[in-house]
Amino acid sequence: MRALRTLGAALTLCAAAWLTAAAPAAADGTDGTDGKSGAEAPTEAGTGFRTATEIKPGQQATAAASTGDYLYWVFPAAAGQVPEVEAELKLPDASSRHGSATWQLDVYDGLRRHQPCASGTPARRASQQDETVTVSCTLRQVRSWSERWANDPLQGAYYVRLTVVDLPAQDLGLPIDAEVEASVRDGGGAHADGGDVTPLNPVLRAGTAPGTDSEPPDDDTASDSTDDKGGQVPHAVAEPEDGWGSGWWSDRWVWTVIGAALAALAGVGGYTLTRGPRSPGRPPTGPGSDI
């Protein structure tokens, strides 16, 4: 019975430690948003990387455009987070269309490297009768460091491009309405890569260098930062409130707690086996037991 009580106490301590460690990861909400911004969602999209409209994680951006346009948005993602993007398009009336069309969602990092989707449906073909079409993409977990030759997603800005890639020529220019939402969820392990790189957060205007006296563009989507010489440098996205490190939480906590639980179980089991059975009323045996 003593062994069972010891085992139960060890499991209780491990469970309490795991719940305490996991609490910060669950505090951000199920959709990975902070719910603090309350800012009005954008109602337009950019037409290129340089003019991409900034959206905050959790915001649902909208845009009215024409079929054939390239629509661009940009959002920040920190190390340890898993970015998810979903877009819904309201198509023109079926009577005005001349056939099916394929819509495609692409995601690029701050270096404009195309990032493959780990899950989701980034391309979908809509028939002439469809009223809406939905495309989505979930990226791999963002890392804080990577090899130069790798295409791993790194912390910084992420560009979303939405367009049609195959349709009848007669349908070009028909009006469409797009709704895009980018979210990030904390996957842990923000500090598990053993390194840290500068966030891939491009400067909005070409030729703007740290320390210059040029004024930043009057653009609400620009996020200004100050360098060591006092110059204003407008970047593609603003730094997240919790920074690019995505907090102190790491999935190493989970593996540490699991390892501690297994070690406790092994210790209790080994003690029980080596102690052996012992009758409650049996007197001790051995040298000096007759005294």
UniProtKB/TrEMBL annotation:
Region (Disordered): 26-48, 185-244, 272-291
Signal sequence range: 1-27
Keywords: Signal
Sections of the chain in a coiled coil: none
Compositionally biased residues, Pro residues: 280-291
Protein name: Secreted protein
Species of provenance: Streptomyces javensis
